[in-house]
Structure formats: structure tokens, C-alpha cells
Amino acid sequence: MEFDFKKLDVNLSDRSYPIYIGGNILHKADMWWPGTKAQKAFIVTDENTGDLYAERLQIILPIESIIYKVPAGEKSKSFTEYEEILEWMISHGLNRHSLVIALGGGVVGDLAGFVSATAMRGVKFIQIPTTLLSQVDSSVGGKTGINSKQGKNLIGAFYQPQVVVIDTTTLKTLPQREMKAGYAEIVKYGLLGNSRFFEWLESNGARVIAGEDDALIYAIETSCAMKAEIVRQDEFEETGLRALLNLGHTFAHALETYCKYDGRLLHGEAVGIGLVLASRLSARLEYISQEEAERVKAHLMSVDMMSEIKDISGIDATAEKLLELMRKDKKANSAGLVFVLLNKLGRAKLDNDVPEEKILEVLKESIA
């Protein structure tokens, strides 16, 4: 049987690793399995993904493995789950040569990656993302972590995987809501650095969400290639380039924190709203035209995605409360909030001098 796949490289000197993208490649372990002295693998997954793929993965791995399942959802990115996984691994023979495999979406990848970064002062791990959002964003680049009661992703580490295995057939079982949530991150890449890609998405976004193979693989490959290049240039967010990947996220993280990760707002849904608000704020500051800002909202609406705060079920937030939460965002500094805004569709920049009255105007318009 022929396996058609794409291979990208994240070039980070001695921390470089490959990304494999294609259908049915999960079962081709001899292609992607990294060189390792590990004699045991610890598979961390969630209850949904684990039931579908964990035992299948065990069969094809060349070493012994055991499985740990966390509850599905953002609430698993917690100190409680972090501690329980670590204690489970230690009690089952964890050592410096052990291997961790993150099998699931962004929550599993972030959590298992942080466990890997801190267990025994660092053990190797593999990312096998099974949601569109994790395939195009969170599995690549080495950001790992958990949430604090004060906000999202405030506790974590930069820690690169050995390999990222993106099997697009795992998306066949993904609900449409999850596909749309992941699609928001794809749109982000077009807006922050590739206007032609955004134009392509305007014509082909529905095909990506529908899971049409050619459109889906092109969108994933383009997104991963963009992120890999940004990470190569600014792995630890020292120059400001990597921070551009947070387009829409200052708004998004405040919305998620306000909703307390209760299931009514997925991360990608919050990012979609955040992209609209960031483009609208860019227009208010006269960085882009109102017409350009409207294109962002129009595209998300064309694929039936949320685009305003008022679209969130049961939302009762005030602009002032959301602004208060935004001030706790990890991208804030002593000078105040830092926003990723648009110079034009396809080019983003950092701005740490945004008047708060402009932020409040944008929030109030989206709530009304």
C-alpha cells in the first residue's frame, strides 16, 4: 500500500524535528518513529480520542506502552491532572529514557508536553494531534503548559517534540464544530502573513471544513510551514516575530477565561471572534480600512462560524470585565496590553500603545 505524505522540517539546530502530514500515516510507524533508547512509552490521551485510537497505536508501536486518559476538555489543563499524570508515570517506571506520546487535541498536547518538559527534568515526547486546531497550531513549535485560575496558559515551558505526526484521517471522526474551531487558526495564518492564502481560503474554506482531502492537506501544510518558519526565526519569543502568532488571542483568552472553560466556547471559536475584533480594532486605529476588516467577518460568517461576542451562548460579559481579564494576559507587559494587529490583510504587527477607550469601543460593539 502506498502512503502519500508531506514532510516538513522545523529547523532548530539540535532540537530540529520533522512534521509528517498525510492520510493513514499513523499506522506507518516505521516511517515516523524517532531513534530512541526508550523501552516504554507513556501514551497520554483523552477519553474521546483514546477510545478511538490509543489501542490501535499500542499495536503498531515497536516498544511497550501504557495508556493514561484524561477527561476531554480544557479543564484538564490543570495542576490536578498534571500532578496525577506525573505520579502515574513515576509509579509505572518512568526514567530518563522514557517516551511520552501526546495523542489527542491541543489540551492533550499542551498537558502531555508540559509533563514531558518537567518529568525527570525532561523526557522525549511525540505529538500525534487528532484535531484540526492541534494539527495546524498547538502541536508545532514547542509551547506546552497548563492553565491557572488567573488565566489561560500562564504556566508552562518551551519544549520541542521529537516528531509531529499529522494523520488527516483522524479528522473523519471530528465533529463539524471542532473542524470550524480549528479552521479559525488556519485563517489566522492567512491574515498575519500570507494574503494569497487568505484569498484562497475565501474560495476554499468550506472545502477545508468539509474535509476534502486536497484542500485539507494544502491548508494544513501551508499553516504548518508558516509556523515552522516563524518558530525557526524566533523560538523563544525574543524578537516579537513569534508573538504575531497570537493574532486574535488577547481577545480570545479573555473570552475563554470569562466562560470558565465550560464547553460553550471552544478555543478556536474564541480565536475566530478574536480575529474579527483584532481586525476591527486595526480599522479603528486606521491601520487597515473598514472594508478589509469586514472581509474577515464576512469570511467567517460564510462558513457559519461565530464572529461576535454576542454569538456566545448565555454570554453576559461587560466590556469592562473583559478588559480587566485582558490585562492579565501573559503578553501584557509593564507598559500595558500588547496587541497583534493588522497593517493589511496578510501582514501583522505588535502594538503596545492601544488606547483603552478604543478597546472598549470594539468590545461594546461586539457585545451589543
From TrEMBL:
Residues annotated as binding Zn(2+) are 185, 249, 267
Q: Which reaction does it catalyse?
A: 7-phospho-2-dehydro-3-deoxy-D-arabino-heptonate = 3-dehydroquinate + phosphate
Return the cofactor note field. Answer: Binds 1 divalent metal cation per subunit. Can use either Co(2+) or Zn(2+).
Q: Which GO terms describe its cellular component?
A: cytoplasm
The UniProt record lists the 3-dehydroquinate synthase N-terminal domain at 68-180
Q: Which residues form the 3-dehydroquinate synthase C-terminal domain?
A: 182-332
What does the UniProt entry say about where the protein is found?
A: Cytoplasm
- Enzyme Commission code: 4.2.3.4
One of the record's GO molecular function terms: nucleotide binding
Q: Which cofactor does it need?
A: Co(2+); Zn(2+); NAD(+)
InterPro entries in UniProt: Dehydroquinate_synthase, DHQ_synth_AroB, DHQ_synth_fam, DHQS/DOIS_N, DHQS_C
Locate the residues binding NAD(+): 106-110, 130-131, 143, 152, 170-173
Q: Which UniProt keywords apply?
A: Amino-acid biosynthesis, Aromatic amino acid biosynthesis, Cobalt, Cytoplasm, Lyase, Metal-binding, NAD, Nucleotide-binding, Zinc
- Where does this chain mainly localize? cytoplasm
- Pathway listed: Metabolic intermediate biosynthesis; chorismate biosynthesis; chorismate from D-erythrose 4-phosphate and phosphoenolpyruvate: step 2/7
What's a single GO BP term from this record? amino acid biosynthetic process
Write out the function statement from the record. Answer: Catalyzes the conversion of 3-deoxy-D-arabino-heptulosonate 7-phosphate (DAHP) to dehydroquinate (DHQ).
Similarity comment:
Belongs to the sugar phosphate cyclases superfamily. Dehydroquinate synthase family.
What protein name does the entry list? 3-dehydroquinate synthase
Instruction: Provide the species name.
Output: Micavibrio aeruginosavorus
* Taxonomic lineage: Bacteria, Pseudomonadati, Bdellovibrionota, Bdellovibrionia, Bdellovibrionales
